[in-house]
């Protein structure tokens, strides 16, 4: 029988379903970037090394700042280094910089400085010098008084650092707390704005379903259907693996 006497009866197009891995491909949960390690930021690395007394690279000027070392034993009337001993001086230096914390070091400095009233006044009752300070270090659970210069040299700190601690301690005797960096950055995006952006992106990611394009061909009575998907968003453009479905058609004689 010739092909002209045979009429092809189109059967209903088969239902094209999405593959089982659709949930993995078109997940409603957006894929966010990994958060960075804040401890590895250049400024935080430099801060940690600076408070540890190690060499570090300045963030602003990009220059190498040398590591801290014990100051020289300058001649003084109290002979501080001789009374303390170089081994104890090195131990105190190492323990101080091992703290690696600005607040802890400030508390240590405040605890090793004693303020007391001036015994004798040489410049009259209107003198601004109302108190005098004694600096000491702890050796075998005993406090040894040292001069201000040797106290700074033992700990490898500047006199300005000591004066800042004393000015902030005041009459309360409480060690100061470093408030730098406590407030939020003015350039930081607020958390509620970030949450709104994430929610908006999640909604768009959910409602943007792929368009199913069905192409059917007929050859020798076998209908072959191929299904592909495409989206309008280039960032989420994906293509299914072509799914080939076969269905037999009924052929009736005229």
Helices and strands, with pairings:
Layout: E1 6-8, H1 22-25, H2 42-51, E2 56-57, E3 64-65, H3 80-84, H4 86-98, H5 102-111, E4 113-117, E5 131-139, E6 142-146, H6 148-155, H7 159-169, H8 191-207, E7 211-219, E8 222-230, E9 243-248, E10 251-253
Overall shape: elongated
Q: What fraction of the residues are assigned to beta strands by DSSP?
A: 15-25%
Q: How far is the first residue's CA from the last residue's CA?
A: 12 Å
Helix percentage:
25-40%
- On the 0 to 100 scale, the average pLDDT is 75
Strand order of the largest sheet: 4-5-6
Secondary-structure element order, N to C: EHHEEHHHEEEHHHEEEE
Helix tally equals 8
Q: Which residue ranges are poorly predicted, with pLDDT under 50 across at least 5 consecutive positions? A: 1-9, 14-28, 233-254
What's the main sheet like?
A: 3 strands, antiparallel
Q: Strand pairing plus helix content: what structural class?
A: alpha+beta
- What's the β-strand tally? 10
Rg is 39 Å
Region (Disordered): 1-24, 231-254
Biased composition (Polar residues): 242-254
Tell me about this structure.
It is a single chain. The protein is of the alpha+beta class and 254 residues long. Among the domains are: 68-119 and 129-169, no CATH class; 192-254, no CATH class. Helices cover 31% and strands 21% of the residues. The strands form four sheets. A three-stranded antiparallel β-sheet has the order 4-5-6. Helix 5 packs across helix 7. The longest helix is centred in the C-terminal third of the chain and has 17 residues, at 191-207. It is elongated, with a radius of gyration of 39 Å. Mean pLDDT is 75; it is low at 1-9, 14-28 and 233-254.
């Amino acid at each position: 029988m010739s092909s002209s006497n045979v009429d092809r009866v189109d059967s209903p197009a088969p239902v094209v379903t999405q593959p089982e891995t659709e949930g993995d491909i078109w997940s409603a949960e957006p894929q966010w970037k990994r958060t960075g390690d804040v401890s590895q930021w250049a400024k935080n690395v430099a801060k940690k090394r600076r408070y540890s007394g190690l060499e570090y690279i300045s963030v602003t000027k990009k220059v190498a700042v040398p590591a801290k070392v014990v100051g020289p034993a300058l001649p003084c009337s109290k002979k501080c280094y001789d009374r303390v001993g170089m081994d104890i001086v090195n131990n105190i230096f190492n323990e101080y910089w091992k703290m690696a914390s600005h607040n802890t070091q400030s508390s240590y400095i405040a605890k090793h400085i004693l303020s007391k009233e001036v015994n004798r006044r040489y410049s009259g009752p209107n003198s601004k010098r109302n108190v005098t300070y004694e600096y000491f270090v702890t050796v075998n659970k005993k406090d040894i008084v040292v001069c201000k210069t040797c106290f700074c040299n033992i700990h490898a700190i500047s006199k300005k650092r000591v004066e800042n601690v004393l000015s902030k301690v005041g009459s309360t005797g409480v060690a100061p707390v470093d408030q730098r960096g406590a407030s939020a950055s003015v350039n930081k995006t607020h958390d509620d704005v970030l949450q709104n952006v994430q929610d908006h992106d999640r909604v768009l990611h959910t409602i943007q379903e792929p368009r199913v394009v069905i192409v059917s061909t007929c050859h020798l009575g076998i209908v072959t259907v191929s299904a592909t998907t495409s989206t309008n968003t280039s960032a989420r453009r994906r293509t299914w693996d072509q799914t080939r479905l076969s269905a037999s058609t009924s052929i009736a004689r005229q």
